[in-house]
Amino acid sequence: MKVLSGTSNLKLSKDIATKLKLKLVNSNIKRFSDGEIYVEINENIRGNSIFVVQSSSTPANDNLMELLIAIDALRRSSAKNITAVIPYFGYARQDRKVAPRTAITAKLVSNLITNSGANRILTLDLHAGQIQGFFDIPVDNLFATPIFSRHIKKNIKSKSFVCVSPDVGGVERARALGRRINAGIAIVDKRRSAPGKSEVMNIVGYVKNKTCIIIDDIIDSGGTIVNAAKALKDKGAKDVYVYVTHAVLSGNAVEKINKSLVKKLVITDSIDNSKKIKNSNKIQVVSISTMMAEAMKRISNSTSVSSLFK
Length: 310
Ligand code: R5P
Fold this sequence. Notes:
310 residues, alpha/beta, Rossmann fold, seven-stranded mixed sheet, five-stranded parallel sheet, 14 strands, 30% helix, globular, binds ribose-5-phosphate
């Protein structure tokens, strides 16, 4: 087994490789002066199982294209099989036609990755589980919930937790975390008037004097989380902590979180945010590298990946 890194999150790739006691595949990934991407593999990989690690985070189009070109280079270098390790699978929020005459980008991206030559996908907290069905190759979708529950148990002292889903789509995730930390759930009734704009209509569930743990797959503009925290506080919540897998953190999201009623935002390193968050003492990162490395080892050895979550 060998690990090739794209350029979206080199730190995570290095951490994964270190956990696997491997060196990253020697490669050149460069841009031509017009922006086109060039990938060259500088070592023999004939007959190897290759894991190519690349998130389709910002700049999403460049990072996605880089992944496709890297897979093509690996295929043409006679890799035995290629697993696309996509810690953050971008374009996933358009997973159905939200209005007439719109695209389903999650399906389009799945087709592109498959047709470029990937044999398998390893990803984390897909926006919607059913995106697995957009692929006709095996997909292993990992969950950050065990990492988050360990972090909560170690760092937050409370006798009265409630796990909060910031929208109806995330209820299953809140329930899964609730099971692990022995808490009930509450749901924010969120409406979106336009992409990037959200409004809280109501809170379903009892949050008064409780330590609320909001769990979500993505924080993008931060609007969902900031509004949910305010609504929970208005309903008498004691504290509001937030756990989010993929920190897209676009625009002034970090500033919004810093000024918000959120006590702590815990994110993973599926997206490299080291520069964006370095001055925020409200945002903390937990690493997925051990879990990703373990899943890759299990895929390589053909042993169970799902048992990681038992
Ligand atoms: C939506 O369904 C997602 O789970 C997130 O809640 C959403 O993408 C967050 O976006 P924003 O931070 O821009 O409100």
